[in-house]
Amino acid sequence: MKLFHQEPKSKLASTDLCVLFAFEGDALRLPPGIELTRYALEGFKGEFREVRACDVVEGPAKRVLVVGLGKQVAFDVERVRRVAAVSVQRAEGLSCATCSLFVDPAFVRAAQAQEIGAESLGRALAEGALLGAYTWQAGKSKPKVAKLQSTSIVSGRGLANGIESGIVLAAACAFARDLQNEPANRLTPRDMAAAAEALVKRGRIACTIHDEKALKQMKAGLLLGVAAGSSEPPRLIHLVYKPKGKSKGRIALVGKGLTFDSGGISIKPAGKMDEMRFDMSGGAAVLGVFHALRSLDVRYEVHGLVGATENMPDGRATKPGDIHVAMDGTTVEVLNTDAEGRLVLADLLCYAKSRVKPDAMIDLATLTGAVVVALGHEMAGMFASKESLERELRAAGEDTGERLWPLPLLDVHKDAMKGTFADLKNISGGDLGAGSSAGA
Fold first, then answer.
1. Would you state the pLDDT for residue 57?
2. Which bin fits 46, alpha (ψ -120 to 50), beta or left (φ > 0)?
3. Predicted pLDDT at 433
4. b/e for 164-177, b at 16 or more Cβ within 10 A?
5. Nearest-CA neighbor of 284 among 310, 260, 256, 303?
6. What is the distance between the alpha carbons of residues 367 and 257, in angstroms, rounded to a whole number?
7. How many angstroms separate the most distant Cα atoms in the chain?
8. Which of the residues 81, 277, 342, 425 is marked catalytic?
């Protein structure tokens, strides 16, 4: 689906579906030239995500879809994304080829009253519409062709910059989703490395791929230990973005790239094991950042590190009780081979510390189900070493709808990871609890 911005005129451009947004209890404002039947909106309350499709009596739109925004006091950017997503999904369901999201001045004023600027509003509308229309059809022999071909956001000029950046960010998110959705036989560590190399943009983004031989020279024993049971060789991906002007600092983004995680010798239950293709989601997010950086002018030097490998059971695979040596010389006793993500990340963090020397490191991983037990699916656990970084990341999470919640890192959690036969072990005792904090 193509998305573009259109400034309002005296008459709305012809469209299959005109989407209007209404707050709970507010009277609906129709665009110039559109008339509905007298009882078209009878009983419509404007509750959040409530929808009403209406045929048009007169005007340039064939149909009108009214989508509820809920109460104004509860209005935020995430609600904007969600109603935009609902709008395009309903447009697809109604077999519309074109759709217009009409943003009247009252909508903008309400956003400003909740301290949502025009740029943020435009970005959220674009992100919601494009990601709401996202589907993955690459695995089908006869992919389904979307009926909705184009959507316009009809609004004042103030939203234009936000819409433009929203298109860039949604494309980056769709790119990451495409990587996630590919099954493990079609996205191997080498395929993930190739996807990273394809992001190179001369003068802005560079990419280095470290193969198995290079990893052995680096003494990346933890990453190699995880990879030992797979016939697919591992890769360490290192992407670098440099700003046009003077850099304000250096940031390292570190992603877990397990293209398939069987659990290794400590094998997982069969149920939903197919979903272990998604264990590379942290790495996909890092690559998605660089997809966006090709079009954005970010004033920091950004390094993206991804450890791409499989975790498989094999005669060469790491066995429970084996000891491996990290890149910095720390020895680790592997008590459970399914706690492999932290091993991969540990070598990547060692690499970042010694070779990149960043001002801040942020690692992203589908690391442990213990976080889901603690927080559910609407928030990600965050372990921050500095309060300032924690505040910045939480604020970014609120702005993007990717909410984070801080979890503790105490000395007792570090003590729980001390090894019996090595410096560390890769899991804490099952009776201690706090598996998320111990792993972190």
1. 95
2. left
3. 86
4. bbbbbbbbbbbbbb
5. 256
6. 11
7. 79
8. 342
Q: Which amino acid is at 129?
A: A
CB 404 within 8 A of CB 350: no
For strand 205-210 and strand 2-6, is the pairing parallel, antiparallel, or unpaired? unpaired
**Residue 146: what pLDDT?**
97
| 246 included as an active-site residue | no
- Cα–Cα distance measured from residue 14 to residue 26, given in angstroms and rounded to the nearest whole number: 26
As given in the structure block, the two tokens for residue 390 are 């924690």
Q: What are the phi and psi torsion angles at 152 (to 5°)?
A: -115, 140
Structure tokens at 174: 């769709």
- Among the listed residues 147, 177, 219, 268, the single catalytic one is 268
User: By the 8 A CB rule, do 269 and 349 touch?
Assistant: no
116 token code pair: 């949502």
- The residue assigned the tokens 């990601």 is 131
Q: How do beta strands 301-311 and 235-241 pair?
A: antiparallel
- For residue 3, what pLDDT is reported? 98
The confidence score (pLDDT) of residue 56 equals: 96
pLDDT in tens, 237-255: 999 999 999 999 999 999 9
Cβ neighbours of 376 (radius 10 Å): 9
**Positions of the chain with pLDDT under 70:** 430
Query: What per-residue confidence (pLDDT) applies to 338?
Result: 97
Q: Can 342 be counted among the known catalytic residues?
A: yes
- Cα separation, 196 vs 289, whole angstroms: 11
Tell me, what's the pLDDT at 111?
93
CB 287 within 8 Å of CB 338: no
Phi and psi based region of residue 368 (left: phi greater than 0; alpha: psi -120 to 50; beta: remaining):
beta
Q: Which amino acid is at 53?
A: A
- Which residues, 6 or more positions from 233, have their beta carbon under 8 angstroms from its beta carbon? 189, 190, 211, 212, 227
